[in-house]
Amino acid sequence: MNTLLTPLPKSTPLPRYATRLLGAALSAAAYVVCLPWDLRNRAESPGAINETSPVTAPGLTFLTLSLLALAAYFGIRDRLAWTLLLVAAPPATLLYISFDTHPTQDANAWPVAWAFFTLLMGGGALVVGAVARQFGPRGQGD
């Protein structure tokens, strides 16, 4: 149990990079599982004015909790820059690809939406990681 919370910068290279790779994979998997690939809004029924989105509140909640838990874990174990890269970068990359690969663009506002959500994920990862560091082992060699 003690090895699950030891600082990663002080561990040997194989466990260090395996843990980081697993963290990035879990972050990407949480995004893929929780958010649908095609994020465009759809009409509720043919000819309807109201639109519906495939993004659900439970999916968004689970994604948020998953990313916050990963940010806390890597905030305790690793440097903040790694926390940002491992937790926020994979979902931000997948979101960008999802927006960019639409055959027809819904609107030209998707770059602004992508930037906003990327900043939100990155800021959240940094804040949670910094707070979690206060509860981790001291002397992590930053």
What do you see in this structure?
This protein is mostly helical and 142 residues long. It has helices spanning 13-34, 57-77, 80-87, 89-100, 110-133; strands spanning 42-43, 51-52. Strands 1-2 form a two-stranded antiparallel sheet. Helix 1 runs parallel beside helix 3. The protein is elongated and about 60 Å long. The model has no long low-confidence stretch (mean pLDDT 85).
| Apparent shape | elongated
Structural class: mainly alpha
Compute the average pLDDT.
Answer: 85
* End-to-end separation: 23 Å
Major beta sheet summary: 2 strands, antiparallel
In brief, what are we looking at here?
It contains five helices and two strands, in the order αββαααα. It has helices at 13-34, 57-77, 80-87, 89-100, 110-133; strands spanning 42-43, 51-52.
Could you give the topology of this structure?
Elements: H1 13-34, E1 42-43, E2 51-52, H2 57-77, H3 80-87, H4 89-100, H5 110-133
Antiparallel strand pairs: 1-2
Helix pairs in contact: 1-2, 1-3, 1-4, 2-3, 2-5, 3-5, 4-5
Question: Which tags fit this structure?
Answer:
single chain, 142 residues, mainly alpha, two-stranded antiparallel sheet, 5 helices, 61% helix, 3% strand
